[in-house]
Amino acid sequence: MDAYKNLAFSYDRLTNDVDYGAVVVFYHEILAAEGVKPRTAADLACGTGSVSLLLAQRGYQVTGVDMSEDMLTVAAGKVQGLENRPLFISQKLQALRLARGVDLAVCGLDSMNYITDPADCEAAIRRVYKALNPGGIFIFDINTPQRFRSMDGQVFLDEDDDVYCVWRGEFDEKTNICSYGMDLFQRSGKVWQRSFEEHREYAYTQEQLLGYLKAAGFSHIRVYGDRRMEAPTEQDMRIYFSARKGRIK
Question: Is the domain of 93 the same as that of 211?
Fold first, then answer.
């Protein structure tokens, strides 16, 4: 079953603790440090468009990209009243093809981990490089292998008055994949509807991703701790990368 098909319309309610504003602020800390002032942006694996919305409100011309049409349906509704409305398109990142180049590409909330074939991840990074304008910058984050190991055997619960979601993580050291099955209960009038989804993420190392970025042609590659403008530590469960396409003149 496709990940996020049934979850899409309850996703924002179950992730209301995610501080998207803080994520976008951190993006801009990186942009300031790099001296980059983008006008156009691609929000890759944009989901329900929360980051796309915030970037558009800051004046960027935004293209949101996601493989889930259900998530994009929610995203389109979220920006309906916005004058500077993002454009949303359905594509896999390893087949990314934008109509025009962008100055900034972001990929948040460990979406890169969802590319579970390393060859596809490498292809996606090459596609992002091609999609950027000269001098453009790519910023993304991942869950670290330590994060996935900590999830092994753990049971998690998210709920509100109309949605109940329980899931259990399992990490396979041989395949480097963390799988978690989600039992989702959603209220529809007086009836609760049950569905199931399986999500899978690959535990990429810093070294792997640095290699993919360099092979794609990126330069000025930097790695940060979790929303900190400093190098990550072994305790970081999430880390950020930034990489440039050539130099700014």
Answer: yes
